[in-house]
Amino acid sequence: MTEKQGPTVQSVERAIAILKAFSVEEPELGVGELSRRLNLPKSTVFRLLSTLEAGGLVAQNPKTGQYRLGVDLIGLANNVIAYADVRRVARPHLRRLADALGETVSLSILDGRDAVNLEQFVPPRRLVMRVGWVGRRMPVHTVSVGKALIAFLPEEELSRLLDGSLEALTPHTITDPQVLRDELVRVRERGYATAFEELEEGLHAISAPLYNHEGEIVAAISVSGPAYRLTRERIEEIAPQVVQTAHQISKEMGYRDGP
After folding, report:
1. What integer is the mean pLDDT of 161-183?
2. Rounded to an integer, what distance in angstroms lies between the CA atom of residue 17 and that of residue 1?
């Protein structure tokens, strides 16, 4: 096994190599074969397999003594598929919404304490600040899409997210956890979230959550634009359209409850 350069953890790197050694053609492999292929001592391979087995990522065939990939990997793979599926379903709706409103429309997910943009559509006739490019991470308390993603979390999970200080990115950023909690109550009541110059000065946004077939929030859509154009009054006007678009996307992902 070739060692990679950089800030990697050797044991994790070796565990990844073990998982990637399995294939459709060879669904089961023994300690000896893995040791030979990866150029690792059998004792090391066995310890890694034992750890992976405890985590449900590999399983041992009691008849042959060989190992195969564990069923818990299916759940992890489904998480990735879910994000890929929401992007596929959401794209045409996001494009139509961007064209209809003439503002930037984005699709984001929750990752730890950040909202991460997966997709973005900008009408050709608009030139806006680069505030939501694909891949950008934004603290959840500073953006409307972050509020939409965390507003319906269980209390224990929400408390973990709000534990510690909330960084101020502008003079308008909400940094008081109780003020943010009050804002999240309003999000739950009206079905959408807003942010007014909380991430960057001069930027306003509105967001609504997306639900999967199990009624879980898996992502959120947002409409953002310059404050002089996307005013508070304008946001109130377009709120029903944003919520309805989110509901349509959710329905196509199997969600059956009301908006």
Report:
1. 93
2. 8
- Token couple for 204: 């306003």
**Cβ-proximal residues to 179 (8 Å cutoff; 6+ apart), any chain:** none
CB within 8 Å of 77: residues ≥ 6 apart:
none
pLDDT at 71: 84
Place of tokens 């939409």: 148
How far is residue 120's CA from residue 133's CA, in Å, rounded to a whole number? 7
Provide the 8-state DSSP code for 31: H
54-87 in b/e burial notation, b at 16+ Cβ within 10 A? Answer: eeebbbbeeeeebbebbeebeeeeeeeebbebbe
188 — phi, psi (to 5°)? -65, -35
138 DSSP β-pair partners:
115
Q: What is the per-residue pLDDT across 111-155, written as a single tens digit (0 to 9) for each?
A: 989 999 999 998 876 655 454 567 788 999 999 999 999 999 999
Residue 38 contacts by C-beta under 8 Å, 6 or more apart in sequence?
A: 1, 14, 17, 18, 21, 45
Structural Rg of the chain based on CA atoms = 23
Dig out the tokens for 203 from the structure. 């930027």
The domains found in the chain, sorted by start residue, are 10-70 (1.10.10.10), 78-252 (3.30.450.40)
Average pLDDT, the chain: 89
